[in-house]
Amino acid sequence: MNLIEALQNIGLNEKEAKVYFALLKKNRGSAYWIAEESGLKKPTTYVILDDLIKKGLVYKVPREKKQLFVAKSPKEALALAEEKLATTKEALPELLALSEGDKPKPKTLFFEGLSGAKDNFRWQNRRMKDKEVLGFYAHSGDASPELVGFFLENMEDFKKNNCRTRGVVPEHPNLEVFRKTDAKYNRQLKTIPFDEYSANISIDIGDDFVSFFSFKDLQVTRIENKDIAATMRQIFEMVWKGRPEKPQGAEFAS
User: Fold this and answer.
1) Helices 145-160 and 113-127, interaxial angle, to 10°?
2) Using CB atoms within 10 A as the burial measure, which of 39, 114, 163, 254 is most buried?
3) Mind listing the pLDDT tens digit for each residue in 99-126?
């Protein structure tokens, strides 16, 4: 880490850090000299010096012919930063109360592209560790080879987190590769004839979230809301119990 970055870490922006650093090297200097030393334009330097004075890191030394500026010790700069941090920490409970309230506020998140989809599913795997995910799953006709590759990779992470799945899927040839590993990766599924169920959007239902994934558009919409998740889980159970197909894959204790 260079010294400019170190100064930015205590709350200065890049220009403020350059001006303060220039002054530290000479202890005091005119605005013209500081501008030359920091590589900033003189009008900008005056603005930055005023900001640093307000922050208590620089002060003026008036003289007859020209005005000089002096940098305070880096120890004082660090002490000021620590004081601000301490004040923020004191206010943290109130800030969290505003943010969270008594209950977590529902939120809707959007993920795009393959990297966004990966981020969502890795989050889901951690969120549902040792739990059961319910799902209405799609055929993979719209999935790119890269996405199919990620699905295969994600199975390992899913199993590592000891997650399990119950779901319904369309009967489709492009899903046969997945059906061969259902038992291995803790999936129990009912396969529904394609003319009755031909979804190209997958829905994952957790304890407090529901995710909708479009393979074709590589878009995930995740709704984090316990009530919506509970309703979707009830809908799933009605479908699951109402379908005559025998579950295939993993066997779970009832």
Assistant:
1) 20
2) 163
3) 655 556 678 999 999 888 989 999 999 9
